[in-house]
C-alpha cells in the first residue's frame, strides 16, 4: 500500500505542477494575439475614415466617404469581437489549468492517505 500510495502521490504532485505551471504561464506570458493587433490597426483606420467623412459632409464625395467609413467601422467591429473571443479563450485555458491543479492536489491527498494507511496497517 505504501508503494502504491507513493506512486499516486507522485502522480498527483506532477499533475498539480502541470496545472499550476500552465495557469501561471497563461497569466504571466499570454500568447501574442495577432487578431488584437489587427483590430487596433482597423480601429485607427476606421477613426481616420470617420474623420474624412466628417470633413466631406456637404461635398460631392460625401457618399463615398460615408461608405468607406461604414466599411471601416464594420471591419473594426468584427476584428474587435474576434480579439475579445480570443482573450476569453485564453482566460478559459487558465481556469482549465487551475482545475487540473486542483484535481492533482486531490490525487496527492489520496496518495498521502494511502501511504498513511500503509504505515498503520497491522501485519498479521
Compile the SSE list and pairings:
Layout: H1 2-28, H2 34-56, H3 62-120
Helix pairs in contact: 1-3, 2-3
Question: Summarize this, please?
Answer:
Helices cover 88% and strands 0% of the residues. The protein contains three helices and no strands. The protein is rod-shaped, with a radius of gyration of 28 Å.
Distance between the termini: 15 Å
Beta-strand fraction estimate: under 5%
Say how many strands there are.
Answer: 0
Mean pLDDT: 89
Please tell me what the overall shape is: rod-shaped
The count of helical stretches stands at 3
Outline the biggest β-sheet: none
Identify low-pLDDT runs.
none
Cα gyration radius (Å): 28 Å
SS-based class: mainly alpha
- Fraction of helical residues: over 70%
| N-to-C order of helices and strands | HHH
Question: Could you explain how this protein is built, in words?
Answer:
The protein is an all-alpha fold and 124 residues long. Helix content is 88%, strand content 0%. The chain is built from three helices and no strands. The chain has helices at 2-28, 34-56, 62-120. The longest helix has 59 residues, at 62-120. It is rod-shaped and about 100 Å long.
Amino acid at each position: 500500500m505504501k508503494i502504491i500510495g507513493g506512486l499516486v502521490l507522485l502522480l498527483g504532485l506532477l499533475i498539480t505542477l502541470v496545472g499550476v505551471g500552465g495557469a501561471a504561464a497563461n497569466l504571466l506570458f499570454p500568447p501574442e494575439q495577432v487578431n488584437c493587433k489587427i483590430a487596433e490597426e482597423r480601429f485607427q483606420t476606421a477613426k481616420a475614415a470617420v474623420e474624412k467623412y466628417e470633413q466631406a459632409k456637404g461635398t460631392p464625395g460625401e457618399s463615398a466617404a460615408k461608405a468607406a467609413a461604414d466599411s471601416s467601422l464594420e471591419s473594426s467591429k468584427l476584428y474587435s469581437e474576434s480579439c475579445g473571443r480570443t482573450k476569453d479563450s485564453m482566460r478559459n485555458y487558465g481556469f482549465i489549468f487551475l482545475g487540473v491543479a486542483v484535481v492533482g492536489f486531490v490525487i496527492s491527498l489520496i496518495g498521502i492517505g494511502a501511504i498513511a494507511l500503509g504505515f498503520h496497517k497491522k501485519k498479521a
